[in-house]
C-alpha cells in the first residue's frame, strides 16, 4: 500500500462522478469531442502538450500525427509523443477526446484504445469547463472529418484543426452539495461527510460518500455503516469492520477514512476485450489511514458487499487496487484478501492491508463445480492407468507375436498413455513444490505426452484401416509409426518452448472454495495469450482429427461384423466396439459435449473414462486373450477371408 499522499492519497477521487453522463444544463461540465482522423499509411503518433490554465485547447491532425495542445488543466502539465499501432491499409480511424474538469482528467480514445494524458489529481476547487467551439481551420486532405461535440455535429468536412475556449468556475460549489453530520460516538466516529449529488438539467453528478473515524487510545475496533447515496436502499450499503490492530500503537490518535463509491466505470479496464472476461461490481470501498502504510494486519479488515445474485458458473473474488502498478492502468490483485461467500447475494472480504476493495466477477472461464471430487477421480484413474500400462507393455512384449506390427502399435499407445497418466498424476505436486520454473519443463512434458497419445490413437485408427481394407498390401515399417507417434508431437512443443511464457503454473478455481484453487502445470490459456491460440489450433485440432477418424473407423468395423454369426456367438462384437473405442480415443470426444444441462454429467464421465483409458486397454487385451485360449476360434485360418476376420479381432 502506498502512503496516503501523492497518487495513493488521491486515488479515491477517481470515483467522485459517473463518466459519460449525457445531457446538458447551466454548464457543460465534461467535454467530449469525436471525429474521424484521416491520415497516411506511415508511422502514426499521438502528440500532446498540456499546460495549466483556462484558455484554448487545440485538437489537430495531419498525415502522421493527432495532437492535443492547450491550457485547460488545474494541476496537470504533460508533454509527450505516443506511438500508435501502424495502419498499412486503413487511412482513417475514429477517435474521441474526453475532458473531466472536476478531476482534472483528460484522455483520448483512438480506434478503441484509451490513452490517459492527465490522470485524476483530486477534486478541483476551480476548473476549466464549458468549452465552446472557436473557428474551424480551413480544409485539407489530411485532418479531422465528421467532427462532433457532445454528439452534436460540428462539420462533415476535413479540417486540420479545431479550437475550443474554456471558462473557469468553482467546481465544488457548482457540482456538489456538501453536508456534514456529527456523530454521537465521541470515542470513535468524529464526523460523517456526505458529498451529495446535484442535478443539472437531466445530468446526475454523484460525488464521493465517506466516513471518518478517529481511533484513540483504547480503540477496540469499530463497525461502520457507510452513508447511503440517493436511491440506494440502506440494506444494500457495504459494511466495514475495523479491527483493533488497525491503530498504530505509537500514536495516541489517528484518523481512518472509509470512502464508498457506487460507480466503478473507471475500474472496468480500458480494453473492451477485458470487459468480456471480467467485471468489477459497482460497489467499491476505499479505506486509508492518514500518513500511514498499513500492511500485514494480524486481524483482517472485513468488508461486506451486497449485490445481485451471481450465477454459480461465474466466480467472484475479493480484489484490491494495486497502487504500485502504473496508475494509468487498471490493475486489481487477489493477494492479501480472502473471499467468504455467504449466499449468492452477499460476499465478505477479509483483507490484511488498506487500499480500495471490490468484487471481481470472472465471466469466462468460470469456476469448476465439484472440483475436489473430479480431482480425486482423475488422480485415482491416472494411478490405475499408470500401473495398467506397465502390465500391458510387459504382456505385449511376452506374447509369441511380440514383434508383430500390431503389437508394436499397441505398445506405442501403451507407452504414450503411461507417460500421460504418470505426468498428470504428478502435475499438482510439481506445481505446488516446484513453482513456475519446474512447471515450465513439466508442463511442456505433459503437453507432449497428450499430443503423443493422440498421435498413437490416430495410428491405431490408420493401422486398423490398413489391415481391414488393404489386406494384401504390406503395412508401413514400425519405425514410421514411432516417428509419427513420438517425433511429430515434439515439433509444436519445441516451438512453444522457444516462444516462451506458454507453460507454467495455472490455477483451476473451485466454485465451492475460490480461495484455494487447484494448481497444475499446463499451458497458460488466459484470454489473448499464445497458450490459448496453441490450445485451439494444436490440441483441439489433434483431438478433432482423432475423434472424427475413430468414429468413422468404428462405423466401418461395425458394418463389417454385424452379420457374422461367430461374432454374435462369442460376444466379440460388443468387445470389439468397446476395445476399439479404447484404442481410437473416441471417449475424448466427450470434451466437445461439455455444455447445457448435462455438462456436469459429461464432465464426470469424461474424467472417469479418459483417466482410466490405460486400465480399460489392459482389461480389453486380457479378456480377448482369455477368449482366444478358451474358444480356439477359427480366426487363425490362412485364406484371404479368414485373414481379414483375423485382423479385425487382432485390432479389437
From TrEMBL:
A GO BP entry:
adenylate cyclase-activating G protein-coupled receptor signaling pathway
Membrane topology value: Multi-pass membrane protein
Q: Where is the composition biased (Polar residues)?
A: 633-646
Q: Record's superkingdom? A: Eukaryota
| Residues passing through the membrane, by range | 371-396, 408-426, 446-472, 479-499, 536-558, 570-590, 602-623
Query: What keyword terms does UniProt attach to this protein?
Result: Disulfide bond, Membrane, Signal, Transmembrane, Transmembrane helix
InterPro entries assigned to the protein according to its UniProt record, in alphabetical order: GAIN_B, GAIN_dom_sf, GPCR_2-like_7TM, GPCR_2_secretin-like, GPS
* Any one of the GO CC terms: plasma membrane
User: What are the GAIN-B domain coordinates in residue numbering?
Assistant: 211-367
Gene3D superfamilies with a match to the protein in the record? 2.60.220.50, Rhodopsin 7-helix transmembrane proteins
Where is it chiefly localized?
A: membrane
What is the protein's given name?
Adhesion G-protein coupled receptor G5-like
Give the encoding gene's name.
LOC120025058
Amino acid at each position: 500500500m502506498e502512503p496516503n499522499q501523492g497518487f495513493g492519497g488521491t486515488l479515491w477521487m477517481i470515483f467522485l462522478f459517473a463518466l459519460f453522463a449525457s445531457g446538458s444544463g447551466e454548464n457543460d461540465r465534461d467535454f467530449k469531442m469525436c471525429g474521424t482522423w484521416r491520415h497516411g499509411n506511415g508511422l502514426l503518433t499521438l502528440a500532446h502538450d498540456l499546460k495549466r490554465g483556462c484558455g484554448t485547447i487545440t485538437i489537430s491532425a495531419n498525415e502522421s500525427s493527432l495532437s492535443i495542445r492547450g491550457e485547460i488543466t488545474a494541476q496537470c502539465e504533460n508533454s509527450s509523443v505516443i506511438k500508435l499501432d501502424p495502419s498499412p491499409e486503413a487511412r482513417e480511424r475514429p477517435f474521441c477526446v474526453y475532458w473531466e474538469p472536476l478531476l482534472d482528467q483528460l484522455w483520448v480514445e483512438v480506434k478503441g484504445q484509451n490513452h490517459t494524458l492527465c490522470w485524476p489529481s483530486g477534486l478541483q476547487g476551480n476548473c476549466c469547463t464549458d468549452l465552446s467551439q472557436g473557428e474551424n481551420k480551413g480544409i485539407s486532405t489530411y485532418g479531422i472529418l465528421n467532427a462532433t461535440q457532445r454528439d452534436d455535429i460540428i462539420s462533415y468536412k476535413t479540417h486540420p484543426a479545431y479550437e475550443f475556449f474554456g471558462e473557469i468556475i468553482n467546481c465544488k460549489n457548482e457540482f456538489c452539495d456538501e453536508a456534514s453530520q456529527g456523530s454521537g460516538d465521541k470515542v470513535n466516529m468524529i464526523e460523517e461527510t456526505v458529498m451529495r449529488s446535484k442535478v443539472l438539467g437531466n445530468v446526475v453528478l454523484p460525488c464521493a460518500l465517506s466516513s471518518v473515524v478517529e481511533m484513540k487510545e483504547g480503540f477496540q475496533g469499530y463497525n461502520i455503516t457507510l452513508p447511503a447515496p440517493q436511491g440506494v436502499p440502506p440494506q444494500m450499503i457495504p459494511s466495514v469492520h475495523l479491527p483493533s490492530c488497525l491503530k498504530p500503537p505509537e500514536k495516541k490518535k489517528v484518523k481512518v477514512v472509509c470512502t464508498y463509491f457506487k460507480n466503478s466505470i473507471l475500474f472496468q479496464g480500458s480494453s473492451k476485450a477485458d470487459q468480456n472476461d471480467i467485471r468489477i461490481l459497482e460497489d467499491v470501498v476505499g479505506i486509508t489511514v492518514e500518513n500511514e502504510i498499513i500492511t500485514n494486519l494480524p486481524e483482517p479488515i472485513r468488508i461486506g458487499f451486497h449485490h445481485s445474485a451471481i450465477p454459480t458458473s461465474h466466480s467472484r473474488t475479493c480484489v484490491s487496487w494495486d497502487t504500485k502498478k502504473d496508475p494509468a492502468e487498471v490493475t486489481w490483485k487477489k493477494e492479501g484478501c480472502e473471499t467468504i461467500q455467504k449466499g449468492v447475494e452477499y460476499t465478505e472480504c477479509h483483507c490484511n492491508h488498506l487500499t480500495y476493495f471490490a468484487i471481481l466477477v470472472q465471466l469466462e472461464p468460470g469456476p469448476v463445480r465439484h472440483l475436489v471430487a473430479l480431482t480425486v477421480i482423475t488422480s485415482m484413474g491416472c494411478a490405475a492407468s499408470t500401473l495398467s500400462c506397465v502390465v500391458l507393455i510387459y504382456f505385449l512384449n511376452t506374447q509369441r507375436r511380440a514383434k508383430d506390427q500390431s503389437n508394436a502399435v499397441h505398445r506405442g499407445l501403451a507407452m504414450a498413455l503411461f507417460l500421460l497418466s504418470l505426468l498428470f498424476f504428478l502435475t499438482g505436486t510439481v506445481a505446488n513444490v516446484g513453482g513456475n520454473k519446474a512447471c515450465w519443463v513439466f508442463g511442456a512434458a505433459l503437453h507432449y505426452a497428450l499430443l503423443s497419445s493422440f498421435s498413437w490413437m490416430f495410428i491405431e485408427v490408420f493401422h486398423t484401416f490398413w489391415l481391414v481394407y488393404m489386406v494384401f498390401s504390406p503395412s508401413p515399417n514400425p519405425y514410421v509409426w514411432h516417428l509419427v507417434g513420438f517425433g511429430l508431437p515434439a515439433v509444436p512443443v519445441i516451438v512453444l518452448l522457444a516462444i516462451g511464457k506458454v507453460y507454467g503454473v495455472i490455477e483451476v478455481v473451485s466454485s465451492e472454495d475460490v480461495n484455494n484453487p487447484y494448481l497444475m502445470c499446463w499451458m497458460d490459456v488466459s484470454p489473448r495469450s499464445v497458450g490459448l491460440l496453441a490450445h485451439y489450433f494444436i490440441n483441439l485440432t489433434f483431438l478433432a482429427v482423432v475423434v472424427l477418424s475413430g468414429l468413422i473407423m468404428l462405423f466401418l468395423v461395425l458394418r463389417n461384423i454385424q452379420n457374422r454369426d461367430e461374432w454374435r456367438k462369442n460376444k466379440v462384437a460388443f468387445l470389439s466396439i468397446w476395445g476399439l473405442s479404447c484404442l481410437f480415443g473416441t471417449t475424448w470426444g466427450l470434451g466437445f459435449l461439455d455444455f447445457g444441462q448435462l455438462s456436469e454429467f459429461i464432465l464426470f464421465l469424461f474424467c472417469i473414462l479418459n483417466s482410466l483409458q490405460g486400465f480399460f486397454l489392459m482389461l480389453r487385451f486380457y479378456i480377448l486373450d482369455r477368449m482366444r485360449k478358451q474358444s480356439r476360434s477359427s480366426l487363425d485360418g490362412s485364406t484371404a477371408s479368414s485373414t481379414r476376420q483375423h485382423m479385425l479381432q487382432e485390432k479389437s
